[in-house]
Amino acid sequence: MEQVVIDWKHLRQGKGQGIHEFTQEFRKKALGLGISLDTRETLLKYIDSLHSCLQHTLLMFNPDDFDEVCVQAIHIESGGRSFKFSPQSSKQLEIKDSNDSKRKSNSNGKKSTTTQKERPTCSYC
């Protein structure tokens, strides 16, 4: 019994181990020890047992339900191990002056256009 408790305390998601597989192992060990999955302590233990990239992402959602966290973790994993932030293709914008002409003069009197990159977006959302 002592070894089972020690295994529980040191339980971590293994390298290359999927969320679904780890969640099953976590549930099995918790139930074997009579640990309720409905407590905040167990929820935080589960999150703490995951890979660090998942821990930080899941904690941003202020989780309060074990099943919800499991679903979120599986969803994050299915989209890749981490979020990929990539700027959308930049578009060249024409700046209009107050007369609605498509030219803007700089200090030299020459026409200029401005390119502006759009903000990076989360491919998860």
Topology:
Layout: H1 2-9, H2 19-32, H3 40-49, H4 52-60, H5 66-78, E1 85-86, E2 91-93, E3 114-116, E4 121-122
Antiparallel strand pairs: 1-4, 2-3
Q: Number of DSSP helices?
A: 5
What sort of overall outline do the alpha carbons produce when their principal axes are compared? elongated
| Count of discrete structural domains | 2
How many beta strands in the DSSP annotation? 4
Helix content: 40-55%
Poorly predicted ranges: 81-107
Could you give the order of strands across the largest sheet? 1-4
The value of Rg in angstroms is 25 Å
H and E order? HHHHHEEEE
Distance between the termini: 44 Å
Chain-averaged pLDDT: 76
The computed structural class is mainly alpha
Largest sheet: 2 strands, antiparallel
In percent, how much strand structure appears in the residues? Answer: 5-15%
Report on this structure.
By secondary structure, the chain is mainly alpha-helical. The chain folds into 2 domains: 2-78; 88-125, no CATH class. Helices cover 43% and strands 8% of the residues. The strands form 2 sheets. The protein has a two-stranded antiparallel sheet. The longest helix has 14 residues, at 19-32. The model is unreliable at 81-107 (pLDDT under 50).
